[in-house]
Amino acid sequence: MGRFARAGAMVGALVLTASLALTGCGGDEEKPAFVPGQQQVGGVSSSAPDPSAAPSDAADAAPPLTVSPADGATGRPVSSEISARIPGGGTVSKVVLTTADGATVAGRMRRDGSSWVPSTALKYATKYTATVTGTGKDGAPHQGTSTFTTMAKPKSMIGSGLYLFSDKTYGVAMPVVAEFSPGIPKKDRAAVQKRMFVQTDPPQPGAWHWVGNGTQAYYRAPEYWKTGTTLTVRLALAGIPLSNGKYGNIDRSATAKIGRAFEMSVDNATKRMTVSENGAVIRTLPVSLGKKSTPSSSGTMVVMEKKESTVFDTRDEPDPNNQYVTKIDFAQRLTWGGEYIHAAPWSEGVQGRRNVSHGCVNVSMADGRWLFGKTLIGDPITVKGTERQLAPGNGWTAWSMSWSRFVEGSALPVPKGGQPEPF
């Protein structure tokens, strides 16, 4: 088992105010996750209403609706959304948000109509005016206006990261992984989760699952992503207030592709790996798994990191028999604890017959090279029949549980079949 200190191998690349470079985290570029100036209804994009269009005379004369943030409010979070209450009930049809110099802020209405979300975080210590138009249940038009000011930039912020790079292609089991330091308090997770937006094309429902003490959250669909899917993710956390006195640091976003369906399955009983691509078996490889004192984990893992050549240094292991420094070729990380798929020429003689590794999936040099050339970050591997079960959070373990178990980790209710997309 190759043990790297997590800070050195993976999360050292987790830049809490920048990108998570080693394992596909979103960069610091604050690209809007959604196309400015567009609305999306039922998965179909259409042009947003012209914010410069003057309201009708009827709207001018209609009873005012109540806008939130309230008129005159100060110190509002830069994560604020615009909502409104129409007397007697009704539907908001248009929101225009402008700065003091008249610049218009892009945004879109949530699918459920509960609020309008700016496409990027608002600026600190800035005055905004929201003009909201709606229609009452009786068909009468309503309009309301609110001018509010955002808070100054806070001093105490959380760190955050997104394990996804824009313009990259990932395997069908790639979860959206958000990471926080320190973890998000349990009482705040619902509010934070409401600001973590995932859209898919073609549309696929999904859900979030919080891990451990709130340092990570995974998003996945009920099944593996469809091949060719585009994932558009925005963690709109800049300025979101938390109960521990901290605030979200920045918005993070990424748009990535899902590639072909490539799956690996390892059975300890046969000591064989079956490799499938797009549903067809393309190769079967002999393997050697972890010996009984250092067993491999059974469960569904994903490829988190790939290194053509690296060094495993386990001299901090308490057992002298498990201490070594070894050069490793074609290493593919599966867990934070140090389990990899990698070439092991020293065990080729027993691969397919006996387990001798320290927890890794050993393959021959030729098979390691071939497999390394085929896999993507996010490709799944399922190992079964070993002496140890995969621990939740030891790697990106989003798929190592049933869908019903996964949605239990959501901070918000999840409808049967998954949460619909927010826009």
From TrEMBL:
What GO biological process terms are annotated to this protein in UniProt?
cell wall organization; peptidoglycan-protein cross-linking; regulation of cell shape
Q: Where is the active site?
A: 342 (proton donor/acceptor), 360 (nucleophile)
The reply on keyword Transferase is: yes
Report TM segments.
Answer: none
Which Gene Ontology terms of cellular component type are present? extracellular region
Q: Which Pfam families match?
A: Big_10, YkuD
Spans annotated as Disordered: 31-86
Which segments constitute the L,D-TPase catalytic domain? 262-384
Q: In which pathway does it act?
A: Cell wall biogenesis; peptidoglycan biosynthesis
UniProt keywords, alphabetically: Acyltransferase, Cell shape, Cell wall biogenesis/degradation, Lipoprotein, Peptidoglycan synthesis, Signal, Transferase
Molecular function GO terms recorded: acyltransferase activity; peptidoglycan L,D-transpeptidase activity
Q: Which InterPro entries match?
A: Big_10 (IPR041280), LD-transpeptidase (IPR050979), LD_TPept_cat_dom (IPR005490), Transpep_catalytic_dom (IPR038063)
Q: What are the boundaries of the signal sequence?
A: 1-23
Q: Compositional bias (Low complexity) at which positions?
A: 45-64
Q: Does the keyword Acyltransferase apply?
A: yes
Q: Please report the name of this protein according to its UniProt entry.
A: Lipoprotein-anchoring transpeptidase ErfK/SrfK
Lineage of the organism: Bacteria, Bacillati, Actinomycetota, Actinomycetes, Micromonosporales
